[in-house]
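hey m, so remember when u said the tokens were messed up on ur end? i reran from scratch. heres the input so u can diff it against urs
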Amino acid sequence: MTAEFFGSPQGSYGSYGSYGSYGSYGSYGSYGSYAAFGLPESPVAAEAFVTTRDGIVGAPLAHLGDTQPGVPNDVQNLQRLSREVRAALFSFALGTQVTLSFKQGKTGKAILWRRDCVKGHVPGGKYRKLAQIKAPEMDVFKEQMGFLTGYADIRQDRGAEIISQIAAPVPFYQNISFIDPGRTPYTLELLATGLRFANFCEQQMKYALAVKRPIELSPQVQPMILTPTHGSLPSGHATEAFVMARLIWKLMLHSGTPQYEAGGHWGEMLMRLAARIAINRTVAGVHFPVDSAAGAMLGLTLADFIYERSTGNGWTSAKFNGHNYAGESDFEWHKLYTAADDAQEPSSEGPNGVWATSAPRKSPCAADPTLAWLWDKAQAEWVDFDAPAGP
């Protein structure tokens, strides 16, 4: 397995990965192309197919049996679609349920809204706040430059991690949870779905808030990797790392497998990994700690939304108030989430007051059938087999 599992090695692993194409699955087979079967698509192959048909087709066949019509809008079709096609369907199921608004005050405020269920065949329904992020004032970022200076001292120690985590760091999660293309293909498909959706949302928020990168505040930052062109807050790596961590943890936690249910240890370790991935972006010189805090809140919230749309269970609405995030505060994920309970903290407070809040909500909709199909397939990969009955 390589760091390029979900796409290009350049930039944020959500921003530059080829999630909609089979570049996303390049590490475990060239699905969707003839390379998967030993014959690449090419003019030579096309000509071979033409001449083969000419040689064997013969006279028109009589008395062909009737072909039944397809079953429209039914999840049983999903099993026979390529992963590339399913990716588009899953992305549609999530992406059409959210929209974004923006308000300008002392700083920008981006609000991600989720749509309530649609009844009948005509689109409708009201929107509710899913995640809200208010950017800090510039004084916070200036004060946080001290973290960039301090963390730069450990770049040599973290260099291999940072480079390996530029693309989606699935191999790091594989070291905690038993993820493998042969063992958990639907889990990988679910993670790819989550990362596509997270990137879809985070990039709109980054664009709306337009927060400067550290390299724009001082010529001494000198990041060890290229700085992406999109805004600094929320951190895309933090958002996507926490989306992955929570989705994996939810699969484990709800599998009924005893070792995952006891004590929340796997969830704790997955969150520690997500936090380290986020902090490594500050070490690298491309993010502030406050970026990671906002990204982690967004990622945790989006993972819960994906779970809700896949199962019909509850969701979480969350807010991040950068005006109250103290410049002297580093990123600490425990202030946002308790792994053992799989619950976001109702209030996160620092020296300047409450900077994040969350509230559980009841689902206003039934599960989306396509997402439910994927979730059930992925969930089954984490359920232990029953021992055979004795004689």
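this time it looks ok to me. Residues 157 and 283 are 10 Å apart (CA to CA). if urs says something different then somethings off w ur setup not the seq
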